[in-house]
Structure formats: structure tokens, C-alpha cells
Design brief:
26% of the residues lie in helices and 30% in strands. With 267 residues, it is an alpha+beta fold. A hairpin with a 2-residue loop joins strand 5 and strand 6. The chain binds biotin (BTN).
Length: 267
């Protein structure tokens, strides 16, 4: 990751105006949380060329080799209630999808979103987002939004080989990682600013649902201690997945403890 190339491409107003570009880090999320503890401001960004302990959701690892992908974390210091934080993660998924579209790559399909926030192409994951929150005196102290976009990685380790892909694998040519990162930050800033005005995802719901790979498909909802199936219909204005269960009832599934899988596989 070339700092100068990122900075020169950055069109944001405030996100990434304070930016740390590292050759190597354990995890950009962990580093962003450390910076938060040290007083870093709203919009602080950590980018790394490589992560030695990249973190995924549900305690999983995130494959983070050097020189190939984007690993970026945005630190936010929002003045809102805890229950709003999960919505940010859906905004980041939209921003990542826009960033890929902005590259105007020819040839392959555009990425779709697997609720709540994975980007997939042809059923394989090319981007993951891990949002973490810190509290102080019962209020949100910070939110870190960590996004990994698989750009030029050609091989994936072990069991994820079947499920993961990259832009280069899908489109057939190398993409400019700095361009992807800068475009993601700009799109995220636009979406987040709008979100702060309206405190809901209503303004982006149509765009999100148009990309929602689960829409109209049968999904398996994995709740702690309970599994059920239904048809995914879309999302609510606050980001829950609307699923019609087998009894014909409409249920709202919140992210967090619940995960959703396709009945026939990951999507
Ligand atoms: C997932 O499991 O889908 C979420 C993956 C999130 C990976 C990104 S890479 C940048 C940031 N730093 C981390 O350690 N994780 C996130």
C-alpha cells in the first residue's frame, strides 16, 4: 500500500484525513481501537498492506497476505444509541459494492450482498466487514468498521478456498488497491453522512435490496439453539432481514448472534 497514492486519490471531506498506512499490523481493527483509546478522532483510518492476525466475524481469522488486498478500518465516534451501530455495517457493504462498481471492470458479474454485509460474486465471498464497538458510561465511545476486500489474491488457504474469491480471480486482471480503498472511503463517507441525518437505512434500502443475493431465496436462519427456514424478502429500515417462515409469518431477523445461510450452501 502506497500512502502517497492513497492520499492523492482520496476525495473524502473528513474520513481518512487522519490516516495511518502500515506495512504490517496484527489487525487494523485492533490498531484502530488502540488509537481510539489514545484519543483518535472521528474519521481516523488505519490501512495495512498485511495483517498478521486479521480478524473475521465469529472469532474467525481473515486471510491477510501482503501486497494483494485492502485491509482498512474506519474509526467513528457517533453520538447515537447502541442499537444504531449494526446499521453501519450494512452501509459499509453498500460502500464496498459501489467501490467495486466504480472500477468499471469489464467482463464479470458485479458483486452482490449476502446479508448483512458480505460481498459475493458467483456465490464466493470477496469482501467481509467486521464492526466492533466500545462503550463508555453507557454510551457509544467508538465504532470501528473493518473491511477486507480481496483484490488480487489468487489462492486461499485450506477450507476457505471453496468459498472465497478475489476481484482478480473473477475479472481476470489486477486491480489498483489504492483506487479501491480511496473509492470505498468516499462512498462510505457519503452514505454515513446521509445516515446520520436520517438515522435509518430507508434512503439506501432500494439500492441494498437490489444487490441482496438472498432476496427471494430460501434461507436457513441459525439462531442460538434454534434453526429454521424461510424465504428472505428484503430488509427493514433498520437493517433486519425480513424472512417469511414456513407458517407464512413475517419475521425480522437481526444480525449479531444470528447467521443466515442459503439452504443449498453459503449463499
Ligand atoms: C468477516 O468475517 O466476514 C469479516 C472480515 C473482516 C476483515 C477485515 S480486514 C480489515 C479489518 N481488520 C480485521 O482484523 N478485520 C477486518
Amino acid at each position: 500500500m502506497r500512502e502517497q497514492e492513497i492520499v492523492s486519490r482520496l476525495e473524502t471531506k473528513w474520513i481518512g484525513r487522519e490516516i495511518l498506512v502500515l506495512d504490517e499490523v496484527d489487525s487494523t481493527n485492533v490498531r484502530a481501537k488502540e488509537e481510539a483509546a489514545g484519543g483518535a478522532e472521528d474519521g481516523f483510518v488505519v490501512l495495512a498492506d498485511c495483517q498478521t492476525a486479521g480478524r473475521g466475524r465469529r472469532g474467525r481469522q481473515w486471510s491477510s497476505p501482503a501486497g494483494e488486498n485492502v485491509y482498512v478500518t474506519v474509526l467513528l465516534r457517533p453520538d447515537f444509541e447502541v442499537d444504531k451501530a449494526p446499521m453501519i455495517t450494512l452501509l459499509a457493504a453498500c460502500a464496498a459494492a459501489r467501490a467495486v462498481r466504480n472500477l468499471e471492470l469489464k467482463g464479470a458479474r458485479m458483486p452482490l450482498i449476502k446479508w448483512p454485509n458480505d460481498l459475493v460474486i458467483g456465490g464466493k465471498k470477496i469482501c467481509g466487514i467486521l464492526t466492533e464497538m466500545g462503550m463508555k458510561n453507557g454510551k457509544v465511545d467508538y465504532v470501528v468498521v473493518g473491511t477486507g476486500i480481496n483484490c488480487n489474491q489468487m489462492r486461499f488457504p485450506g477450507e476457505i478456498e471453496q468459498k472465497a474469491s478475489s476481484l482478480k480471480l473473477e475479472y481476470g486482471y489486477e486491480v489498483n488497491r489504492e483506487a479501491v480503498a480511496a473509492s470505498f472511503l468516499k462512498e462510505f463517507e457519503d452514505l454515513y453522512e446521509e445516515f446520520l441525518k436520517v438515522n435509518s437505512l430507508a434512503f439506501v434500502r432500494e439500492e441494498y435490496e437490489a444487490l441482496l443475493v438472498n432476496k427471494g431465496r430460501k434461507v436457513c436462519v441459525l439462531e442460538p439453539g434454534k434453526e429454521w427456514t424461510g424465504e428472505a424478502l428484503g430488509i427493514t429500515d433498520t437493517g433486519e432481514l425480513i424472512v417469511k417462515n414456513e407458517a407464512g409469518e413475517f419475521c425480522e431477523v437481526a444480525s449479531g448472534e444470528v447467521s443466515v445461510r442459503g439452504v443449498y450452501g453459503y449463499v
